[in-house]
Amino acid sequence: MMESILEIRGLTKTYAGGFTALHGVDLDIRKGEIFALLGPNGAGKTTLIGAVCGLVRPSAGTIRVFGEDLRSHWRSLRARIGLVPQELATDMFETVMHTVNYSRGLFGLAPDADKIEEILKALSLWDKRNEQIRALSGGMKRRVLIAKALAHEPQLLFLDEPTAGVDVELRRDMWQQIAKLRDLGTTIILTTHYIEEAEEMADRVGIIQAGRIRMVERTSVMMKQLGRTEAHIALAQPLSDIPASLERFAVTLGDGGSELCYRGGDGAGGGKAEVAELTKALVAAGIDYTSIDIRESSLEEIFVNLLEGEAK
């Protein structure tokens, strides 16, 4: 069992107006992992991050970071936590170098030109170090936020929607940068609306809805548990009904009997094996087909299906 770097128990946040954003959340984050917190707008993702980073005062519950109670050791623990917020909150007329150095100083760390150079180079910002932030592209501004958060060398890094508003090419580039940070030993928690971001990067995924954690699982296991294989088989001759020899398969007829539709299995390849058995059964039954289209459910579909199931 990997060491927990963050332990949250019974975390609740009710605002003055009576709205409860978090309902008794329990969550453990393991040292050295990338954890993706996935959920729709208003699910409680940013409130959860704010509680750990001191931006939101919890109504109830405990938060332990690096084995110590956050409330009792707030100042020393916060210095070991980095936060990349959704919104750019910095002086647009400052240079990249100045704002990143300033962020390091805010946490009481001595200047370290070599460390700042290392961070800026890792984020492809070194060539922009003397430019004013207002002159940078949206993607580069996002990188400045990450550089600011890394300036005080945090061991735990929160990324709140790190690639929101960034084009697909730059998003993939930033995924690589985030993976490098993990390789250097930083534990990363990211919130995202981009399902492929979680699927591509995260070791584990947590799904939060209406202030409650619905599921926490390794990404691969979640795919295996909830994934589905879908196959559409175009038949050479239409069928009026499904033959008895095919009734053991999860199939239906479509397109006026000209298509056989299969949906079953799991996300670990079990469905593909069953589709192979289905095609053998078709041949044995003398049913000819002209094409097969097979696809696996994405994590996005799993997510939507899970939330629909919870809503019922």
Automatic annotation (TrEMBL):
UniProt key word ATP-binding: yes
InterPro entries: AAA+_ATPase, ABC_transporter-like_ATP-bd, ABC_transporter-like_CS, ABC_transporter_ATP-binding, P-loop_NTPase
Membrane spanning residue stretches: none
Presence of keyword ATP-binding: yes
All residue ranges annotated as the ABC transporter domain in the record: 6-235
Keywords: ATP-binding, Nucleotide-binding, Transport
GO molecular function: ATP binding; ATP hydrolysis activity
CDD domains: ABC_DR_subfamily_A (cd03230)
Superkingdom of origin organism: Bacteria
Identification of the protein by name: Antibiotic transport system ATP-binding protein
Organism of origin: Novosphingobium pentaromativorans US6-1
